[in-house]
Specification:
Distance between the termini: 64 Å
Shape: globular
Mean pLDDT: 84
Number of strands: 19
Strand content: over 45%
Order of helices and strands: HEEEEEEEEEEEHEEEEEEEE
Largest sheet: 5 strands, antiparallel
Low-confidence stretches: 172-183
Helix content: under 10%
Number of helices: 2
Oligomer: single chain
Radius of gyration: 21 Å
Number of domains: 2
CATH topology of the largest domain: Lipocalin
């Protein structure tokens, strides 16, 4: 009877398409998937120590390793838009990367963002740029919006610039939640050693919202109720160990993107 019951259960799950979540691989770096217009699905990671962007096939075999030019006494901060036919129309592989330096005397950070081809050819340099996003307009054009900060001034200044891109956003990049206005998060100064201001945007009509901060292993550091009538939250990070932390905002069914904080 027990044997018959086991067979019936196994038959039921096979007929209903039951399957398990299967572990594939792990990386000791920050990484994510991208879909390249010509080369297909890839997974890329950012290696801060070696200043590299390593790109893998979906079976986790290495596809390409791109060494990124970072000046002395500067540190790699972010890599985004690993893409084809977004910043050019010649099928070349391109990416956007940001690095930063720290003025230990005057206590402020300086960021630089570059758009480069796979072969290292520089397409655009944006001094002071810490954040950016690409978007498609209804007329078919593709724009890049950049945010440049000057943290040497108090209060700091911010400049928004718009660039017209020659290519188009591939579907997976276009649908990435990071590129929607209501999902954008930003932090300054970032990296930080003492106090940090976290900016956020909430959907219209939000009545309650919570900010969650975790370490890079996913352990929750804290959760904080937000004032829905403002767009920023200040927190002291001086007591946290040096490292990379993640934060996000939740409200009902709304979930923001996950953004990164560096504590020095």
């Amino acid at each position: 009877m027990k044997k018959l019951s086991f067979i019936l259960v196994a038959l039921f799950f096979s007929l209903t398409g039951f399957s398990q979540i299967a572990f594939e691989s792990s990386y000791a770096y920050s990484g994510t998937f991208t879909q390249l217009a010509n080369s297909g699905d890839k997974f890329f990671i950012m290696d801060i120590g070696l200043n590299q962007c390593r790109i893998y096939n979906t079976n986790h075999t290495i596809w390409k390793t791109l060494t990124i030019s970072v000046p002395a006494n500067n540190y790699l901060y972010d890599i985004q838009y690993v893409s084809e036919n977004l910043f050019t129309t010649d099928n070349s592989l391109c990416l956007v990367y940001t690095y930063y330096s720290y003025d230990a005397v005057n206590l402020y950070y300086t960021y630089t963002t570059n758009i480069v081809k796979e072969n290292g050819n520089m397409l655009l340099t944006l001094p002071g740029c810490q954040y950016y996003y690409a978007t498609s307009l209804s007329d078919g054009s593709t724009k890049l919006v950049t945010y440049t900060f000057d943290y040497s001034l108090s209060p700091y200044t911010i400049e928004t610039a718009v660039y017209d891109l020659p290519g188009t956003l591939y579907l997976s990049v276009k649908n990435n939640p990071e590129n929607t206005t209501n999902n954008r998060l930003s932090a300054f100064p970032n990296p930080a050693a003492d106090r940090l201001t976290l900016n956020y945007e909430l959907p219209a009509g939000t009545t309650t919202a919570t900010m969650f901060i975790t370490d890079f292993q996913g352990r929750q550091i804290g959760n904080y109720p937000l004032n829905v009538n403002t767009n920023h939250f200040e927190i002291s990070v001086g007591q946290l160990p040096k490292g990379v932390y993640l934060y996000s905002v939740q409200s009902g069914n709304y979930q923001s993107k996950i953004a990164k904080i560096i504590v020095n």
